[in-house]
Amino acid sequence: MKTLKFVGNDPKQQQFAAELRKRVNAYFKENKISPKGNVRMLLKAAVMLSMYLVPFVLLLTLHVTILPAILLVLLMGIGEAGIGMSVMHDAAHGAFSSKKWVNSTFASTMFLLGSNTFNWKVQHNILHHTFTNVYGYDQDIETKATLRLCEHAPLKRFHRFQFLYAYFFYGFMTLAKLITDIGQLIEFNKIGITKEQGYQPKREVIKLIATKLIYASLLIGLPLWLTEYKWYQVVVGFCILHFTAGIIMSTIFQMAHVVEGAQQPLPDEHGVIHNEWETHQLLTTSDFARNNLFLNWYVGGLNFQIEHHLFPNTCHLHYRKIAPIVEQVAAEFGIPYNLKPTFTIAFLSHAKRLKVLGRS
Predict the structure, then answer these.
(1) What is the pTM of this model?
(2) CA 240/CA 120 separation, integer angstroms
């Protein structure tokens, strides 16, 4: 696996990292609370899973006409996105609970999205969180189909319109993962990441293919077997489900890193980023709509992306409390804190960034 180093030229950056961790740790100690999840996470998981599973059961057991069926599938898509952002995400980081088996169980809800937990942990926990917004290292900003998400990627003429069409392609995120997971895992096996993480490459491939087949059998096979819907209606419903989840999750993810003010630095010829890792996270990441309580709840604190990147093993339930601490310490050490105050401002900032990336 490719590596690079984060070396700050300013000693204040090291002081910032130490002071930040000191104050955040003090918050949890003084309030006598665990940085992991609590019963609220279990309640949230129940709600998100219900939004996904209850409509599916209704579709299988009741004679639902087309229009109500579409509404139920849309609700499933909203639930699927909620599972990915609010349940699976924390669990995969080991933040859902202090108990390893609980984290492992809820991380496995990734299979309800048709994807693979191991792939996610490598791409997201390791590559994205370690090398945030570094082209060639962070797969999240690699060019995807017709989308140019990084200023260092090759520029094509059609990219000038991506600020208009990007959201349509965002809808294919989870659908694409159904297929690209396989190639991605083969690549991880090839470059040695799978073995480095203590997994057996062949076993992971077999497990991946098996879970994909089981997922397709349940989500497509059961409606074909138990309902009167035509095969093409089932396929369209399946696509609507994934398109809904994909457009929600992709938009939220991109609004944290591909916005105005979020840098995309390159390492020097020696593979060095000239900032401390903690400073790098603030320079490449953005918070948005911190006071939007419903958004905080639904997206699993992904709008507190700065806090998530600095403390990925801390449950998102705590981000709203520690965000002012992070912002205050950053201000004291003169490190930028990129905050978009509302969802609308963040959304427009992402659109403007897409426009710039498509033309420069």
Answers:
(1) 0.93
(2) 23
